[in-house]
Amino acid sequence: MDNVIELNNISIEYKMKDVSIRAVDKVTLPIVRGKVTAIVGESGSGKTTLVSSILRNISSPGEVVEGEVIFNGKSKNGVRVLTLDKAGLSEYRWGSVSMVFQASQSTLNPLMKIGEQFYETAYYHGVRTPYKQYLGHIAELLEYVKLDSSRVIDSYPHELSGGMKQRVMIAFGLLLEPEVIILDEPTTALDVITQYYIFNILAEINREKGITMILLTHDIGVVAKAADYVAVMYAGRLMEYGSVFEVFDEHLHPYTDGLIHATPSLITDINKMQAIGGEVPNLLQLPSGCVFHPRCKACFNKCREVVPNMYEVNSEHFVRCHKYGEGENAVKS
Ligand code: ADP
Ligand code: MG
Fold first, then answer.
1. Segment 198-242, tens digit of pLDDT
2. With contact defined as beta carbons under 8 Å apart, do 330 and 310 qualify?
3. 95 lines ligand 1 (CB under 6 A)
4. Which residue puts its alpha carbon closest to atom 7 of ligand 1?
5. Which of 13, 20, 48 to mutate to test the pocket of ligand 1 (most atoms within 8 A of CB)?
């Protein structure tokens, strides 16, 4: 498998005065080149914190306490992201990997036209082509996200709808032609039709540009069509990972099953929808054994006592659950 990024055994803690919150625990995740990887999980499951390690912009006071992030590991220009110096990091951000933050539309400057904001960012990153000549590139990016570039370039943010601004932000992420773009909840707070439209645009950009995408969402339903690979997170742990076929059609983890049946979407029958019982655990008082066990319908004794390992079902499917792992109760795959 050709992985553009490898997250190896990453743990991230927010270290506060009296306590330390482990928001990500020993996550190992490949990001396959040219594909769309969705990271799904309820709010607070550690999605944003995890991908922040890829860009080394974890919000304070968070820090990576173990593990490694490797970019283009197989090439001779491979990068160990966590040890990059300042100059290397600034080139790597945007140029190699860019991120569209959650609710990032609000970071658009209300006093500047969209075209000027694009140019300012490009200039900051070393582009010295004059504005008038660079406009062609900006127009192309805006057309990619199906915006009327002649209008939008000269617009102020308040002149655009929410869906248009979100598309502007996606175009922004493509500005320096990165190899990887991370989109954090790109359609949350938009209406369903606009969500669908934006996911179609993302799929098209992925196909045409071959750009690798990492898509974060709490809504597993929206990724069924958009993703090639799906990673399911719960309380900072990776619970299940695999190709979209394996995770949707052949999923094994009771949490993944719960998420799929709790989410209204085109793939679930609304009459069979059911919320996952119980609550997301407090990261300061995590349950023993498997962190999901208090909410799990399939829980047995071992789950209360022993932390499950990641179990390889096949080369396209991994699950962290005692039902499928070693031991007397294991289900043979
Ligand atoms: P998600 O993106 O899945 O909603 P986050 O990565 O934002 O989850 O957060 C995971 C957990 O990390 C949160 O539940 C919270 O406890 C903790 N956390 C996130 N940001 C901070 C911060 N700046 N300071 C302290 N704790 C934080
Ligand atoms: Mg988040």
1. 888 998 999 999 999 999 998 888 888 889 999 999 999 999 999
2. no
3. no
4. 48
5. 48
Place of tokens 């995590």: 286
Which atom of ligand 1 is the closest one to the Cα of 283?
16
224, 190 Cβ separation under 8 angstroms? no
User: SS in 3 state form for the chain?
Assistant: CCEEEEEEEEEEEEECCCCEEEEEEEEEEEEECCCEEEEECCCCCCHHHHHHHHHCCCCCCEEEEEEEEEECCCCCCCEEHHHCCHHHHHHHHHHCEEEECCCHHHHCCCCCCHHHHHHHHHHHCCCCCCHHHHHHHHHHHHHHCCCCHHHHCCCCHHHCCHHHHHHHHHHHHCCCCCCEEEEECCCCCCCHHHHHHHHHHHHHHHHHHCCEEEEEECCHHHHCCCCCEEEEEECCEEEEEEEHHHHHHCCCCHHHHHHHHHCCCCCCCHHHCCCCCCCCCCCCCCCCCCCCHHHCCCCCHHHHHCCCCCEEEECCEEECCCCCCCCCCCCCC
Residue pLDDT, tens place only, 278-289 = 888 899 999 999
